[in-house]
## 1
Amino acid sequence: MVIRVVVAEDSYLIREGLRLLLATQDYVDLVAGVASLPELTAAVDELTPDVVVTDVRMPPGDQDEGIRFAEALARSHPRIGVVVLSQHLEPEWALRLFATGAAGRAYLLKERVGDAAQLRHAIESVTAGGTVLDPLVVEALVQARTRHAPSPLSRLTPRERQVLALVATGLSNAAIMNRLVLTERAVEKHITSTLAKLDLDPHDTQVHRRVQAVLVYLSSNNS
């Protein structure tokens, strides 16, 4: 399946870099490249892409336009995936991005833009309703844990917290198994135990509970 993508980036060099990179990928149809929030809004309304890849800061305000756009898109076009690119390590922006729903959302640092495999993973994941969080942001949140009061995460074992951190980056069970050199059964056991300890609704689907767990992970590390 070819994924229709709109890119929003005010820097001409980065926007052209993204255009050239995506032009080499047979899984993408880049339908528009824009430089401001008004242009992005118009392009999405006109073209209804599958995914938007957007900078956090764009004209007219150069503040948090990409996050505000994702928040609005969750209400107006909930099926469109969003990959937000940030120049700086800002966990607060990631929290805002996922606050309206983690499904179909990715947050990456701009240094990942040149990594075709990483960008492809993010675009394909949000298209399928998945969640991707840059590993460096996860690392910052983990480090922040020691400075905060006890959270629901205190109920987890060190291995369960490690597995949850990898879930937060969008890795599948198989990928976690390979990363930690565990059996598939062990990974499933850790995830099941984690979901139970976080008191997530057992009647929800496994996918939805994983998303909820990621949100608990993020909010607990920012409290």
## 2
Amino acid sequence: MESTPSTEERLSALEQRVAELEAAAVAPQQTVATSGTADSPAELSETGSTLPGDTETFWALHGLVDHLGEDGGVTYTGYTTPPGGTDPVAWQMGLSSAGLAQIDFAEAAGSLAALGHPVRLQLLQAIYEGTSTVAELGKDERFGTSGQIYHHVHALAGAGWLESARRGHWRVPAQRIVPLLTLVLIGTH
């Protein structure tokens, strides 16, 4: 018959696990490109795969390969509660390598072009963080005149990055929050 761990043993184990999680949270995220070229082939791991062997750091990557197989694919996913929000937003999008081969990259031009202006990105950030009206945005001189703000807001709305929450109020649609944050992460790291 197994003995039940004492309260002290359970507390000690819990403290150790919290310390491990805190250490992992503050450790810098690692990025590894493992695709090879003719001049520099990818190094194979112990398993014969170019997949990084560190399953703790690369848990999402290993999960992707486990789910899609050795041909792999690309995915992005997120779970976050926006500033000032009460409900988390969850999103996942991915395609297998075969699905990616079917994409016409030019189809992304309109959506990406709408984000290609620094003021639009600053407006999106302000709206994401809770500023919702053109009048409120107009108080920040970075955004220009109300006419310029409307021009940018309508361009972002036309590309699906903003929606009208109610008359005169704008928000980033829930289904666009994680894609937006993913693009910002890509652009800054």
